[in-house]
Please model this.
Amino acid sequence: MSAKASSSQLSVSSSGSGGLSHVYIQHPPLRCNAPGTRGLFYDDGNKLLISPTSDQVFSWKAVPFDPHVAPTSDSISEGPILSIRYSLDAKIIAIQRSSLEIHFFHRETGQNFCHKCKPESDSILGFFWTDCPLCDFVLVKTSGLDFLACDAESKSLTVVETRKLNVSWYVYTHESRLVLLASGMQCKTFNGFQLSSAGIVRLPKFEMVMAKSEANSKPVLADEDVYIATMYGRIYCLQIDRVAMLLHSYRFYRDAVVQQGSLPIYSNKVAVSVVDNVLLIHQVGAKVVILYDIFADSRSPISAPLPLLFRGFPRSNTSSSRSTAKDIEIPEANISDSEAIIYGDDWTFLVPDLICDVSNKLLWKIHLDLEAISASSSEAPSMLEFLQRRKLEASKAKQLCLAITRNVILERRPVSTVAKAIDILLVSYSLSLKTGSYLKGIKTEKTSHSAGTQIGIPQSGASASTGEVDAHGTSTKHQSSAIVDNESLNRSGNSSTSDSEDNTQFNSLKANPKVNKEKLSGGAESSSSEVHPSSLQSQNLGPSNSPLNASVSERQESQLMSPAISTDEMYSLLFAPVEEEIVGDPSYLVAIIVEFLRSASSEKIKVQPNIYVLTIQLLARNERYAELSLFIINKILEPSKEVAMQLLELGRQNSQIRKLGLDMLRQLSLHHDYVLLLVQDGYYLEALRYARKHKVVTVRPSLFLEAAVSSNDSQLLAAVLRFFSDFTPGFKNTTDCHGYCRILKEMNSDVAV
Amino acid sequence: MGMASANSGGSEGMELCIFDLRRGQQEGQELDKILFFFPADLPFSTQLSVIGLSEGLITFTRIFSPEAACEVIEAERHSHVFYEAEPDIWMVMVVEKSKEAEAIWRVEALREVLKEIHSLFMMFYGPVREMLEKDPSGGQIRAHLYPFFMDYLSDFLVGKKIQLPSFRDCLKECGTVQMLTVGREAAIEVQSLVRVLESGAGATHCYSLILFQDLLVSTTLSPDDTINLFAYAVQRLSPRALSPGVSSWSYLRRGSTPSHVAVGPTFATVSVSDQFHQLHATSPSQDNSYHVKRPLQHNRWSKGKDGFLVTDIWGTETGSLIPSTPTIWLQQTGERMYLCAYQYKSLTLILLVPLSSILNGEQGVSLVKQQVLENASLKILKVEEKLSKGWGGENAYHVSGYRYLLIDDDRNVSRASPPAKVTTLAKESLLAMSKLREEVDLEKSRSKWDNADRDKDLEICIRAKNNAWVIARTTRGKELYMVLERANETLLYASDAFERFSDR
Model:
């Protein structure tokens, strides 16, 4: 596999956006340029990329990802900076100055204060802010955890609780609210705490698995080898075992940590990202990425290892998003060669889905190319399952699902395969109805935060965990705790490159609309294209406009929260077009609709009458009237006015079908229509009896009278007249009565003559 | 059960013949007309006189009504029931009007018997005319008709007499299908199974029929073919037919076990069964040069290991011991189909695969069967489970207080009170109902000629001698017959009770 990987790597370095890939980073990146900055930090609690200078702190909002976001700045006092994080209400900046001291700055008042540790006992490993009700701030020290609370004026911190533990190093993500503390000789014994909104949960102590290379050597686990990954609202820990070349996974439950199996790795350097709940394992050495969907039990990758792709270079104005390499002219591309290097040495992977190119001060966001992924698999059902779980590009996933299903039907795959595919779509739709994600559309990020971070209950079944998934999946932008490598950050920004970078930015903006067009013709949703031209405009107006703009685009995208397809859309986007396209015997399509109805009924989803109407048409086209009546009588096609009308329409060729339509009208208590049709068929007296029994007053007497006259049957006319004079009060005084009485007399006299 | 009029005076009370008006038109060749005559041991002169009378009447009545000639002759001691099965091929049944009160027939019911026997014959061998054209000597058709009819009639054999549908069977309708009422969910499962069955065979235009117990669940065949195959399935393939005596319940006629026919030495001395008995060896028209399959033979079907039903009726394929798969002929398409029947518990599935779609004979059929098992066995389990859960038992369609028969003429479906419940009715009620049905039959056939596309609305209430209400109502293609024995009140009460029932 490594051989394969390296060969594809070659094609990448030469082709840029050309090669095949499933994952890409979109040009332009977020540029974190500020004069005199001293490194980059990522605050995953607030999702801020932070770059301090000697007396200022610049911060860029990384989520929602907008390459043109303007930084905000705060002034701080001078001093070394080991780590920096904003409080969750963004009022206070905390800066770790040394292993003993943390400095706090109040952003509004400019006040500041220090928190120091006792020098003899321990040193500070790090800190983070928390929204746990017990405390606001957690200090991780070699001797354990300090939970601190801010006082009302935010002028000092007081220790609320301490936990004494030996800590070698720790890992924390705000997304999971989970802190893992490593201890022991090999640093493979872990204590875990979750600081959720429900309180502090202590996880059972557990050991990670490490293979030994030789009998006596005991490898030590490093903090960069352990990742906390949150997928579908479940919290996992991924641990790289360099000796065994495996990535072990552990899942956290409230009172247990369960090893979940291992994934192979093919490179000495491995990084982990999570994009839209898909696990991306970057085989950095081999320069390929492997995708896993950990939702299902299977531990096989979604697709073959393929390189990460740069996308959206300026001037790549070909119609297809996966264009050939020749179209890209690198020299004029205004992007420095250093930027184009995939998996550069200075790349830092920020959990969950960001890449920080430290030396170039760029922030990339990783995207999944759902189109490419879906094209790479011929197994429709599993691909549909995968796509239905995607929330980030729900609209795209939905389009792809429809396209896959449409193709499966048009290719006339076995009914069982199609049935499975449809079943997947309906199960997903029913789930989205239950969780409300289909109807609600827009969800605030707030709700997803609290919901997404609960540690699962042990052996939580699919239903319990998927409930979380949905809520969590809506938090489209994730947080990360990765602290950007301090060493490299201290190298100050390279001023010589900054000019050319500015230039790049300008040009890339111009190219933006083209990129969008390309996206459009590639089959992407049209809503995003409306946004981007305005983003170009706002850039010209000034940077202050862009955050607003970003929020607009965010809302537009988030209108579709779930790729679930409603039964109505199934009809209009799947069955109706397929019905037009499919050639030959329609019974295949009937078989598929039956499977659709079966799935819908087992999921208790209501089906719109238009699908029933279509089924009737298909059956009638084959003249399978016996089956059609079976479908109607067994209520496989549920009664509705539309269905009844379709039956009556077909009834012109087949009287039996017409009767079924009539019966349906009666069952539905559509008395008016029923009576009219009885009259139309010549059952006058039956119609009158029925009208009287069900008190149908909307049918005018003249209708019956006219019909009776036209039948030229004086007995009938007399009967109808008698009926109305007996049962309709005041009828005897109407002109109708007199008129028709006269006609009746004439008729009778004719007979007499 | 009523005793049909087999009287000891003649050989028996019933005669049945088929003749072709296009044959034997020259003097001296009259015998050529006769394709089948029962009883066969009747002298030819007697046979010819029956046929001669019939032919004469047909020719005479055709002068007035060329489309539909003679239907029935009511003589003093006999009724002659006519049925033109195919153009110029007539079937005539002569039944004796006995002094015994039991021998009261409804002509239409007898005609249904003729119709059924002919339809079944066609299902297996194709039209009579076609066979005659193939073998103008008539030997082939006679060789086929004789055993087939005898096997068929053996179903009516009760003790030593042939018992035809009499007035006691007035709440039954031959030539219709009885359906199982299923819920929506089960119905969808069934349809899903149907699609898998028909697509799983890989061939184009397969058909299927699914039965639960003796009731039809689903069909994709045309109405006529459905009726025929349903009748055959209930009589020979259903779980009850495979193991007679296990359950005596059925909506179909004849609770008796006609298996005596082939075996019964006890009947050897009796003339009627004598004829059946002789069938094997030297029946009059049996010609050994024709290889005749007898699909209506009893106890020739059994359940194979794989769940498919097997029979040796169709012989074995040359050079092997594997029984040949039966084939049938579809009226609607004129196509020959392989008949594969599969049984799981109370569920019987019949899959029809076109002969033309399978090139390598038995091998191909067994491949189809294998595919069906692979694709559908799970669904079959599921459907069986769903249907058994919803199955209300033998008396599921009993409505207490009512004895009824509901016929949907459009769909050829009927539903009736369970036979066991009908037998509780007094003889007077049944006689009244039989009479009433005869009236309605007459009215129906009249309106058919008057106005072909409009169904007649009709409602008749009769107070029988025993004070029971006997009611018939036809509305737009549906017929409902009902006996209310305990409704001793007024007509209004009876009609109310009737309304309540109709609303169900």
About this structure: Residues 41 and 488 of chain B are 52 Å apart (CA to CA). The longest strand of chain B covers residues 78-86.
